[in-house]
Write a structure and sequence with these properties.
It is a single chain. By secondary structure, the protein is mainly beta. Strands 2-1-5-3-4 form a five-stranded mixed sheet, with no helix packed on it. The model has no long low-confidence stretch (mean pLDDT 94).
Length: 65
């Protein structure tokens, strides 16, 4: 199991890119952190998630007052 944004998911063995595409994340508006380290976007297709990884996916949103 991989801990993604606070939930355990059966994503071990998937690449970060596969997971993001499957869940329809807009790649240009997110940052991925794996085990407290930011993952470079150019490595998403090669970086496989492993059991017990802690993944945080942060989306940027516009706005302001």
């Amino acid at each position: 199991m991989v801990h993604i944004n606070g939930k355990d998911e059966a994503a071990a063995g998937m690449t970060i890119q596969e997971y993001l595409e499957k869940n329809e994340y807009p790649l240009q508006w997110i940052v991925v952190e794996c085990n407290e380290e930011i993952v470079p976007k150019e490595t998403y297709a090669m970086r496989k998630m492993e059991d017990n990884d802690v993944i945080e996916i942060v989306s940027f949103v516009g706005g302001g007052a």
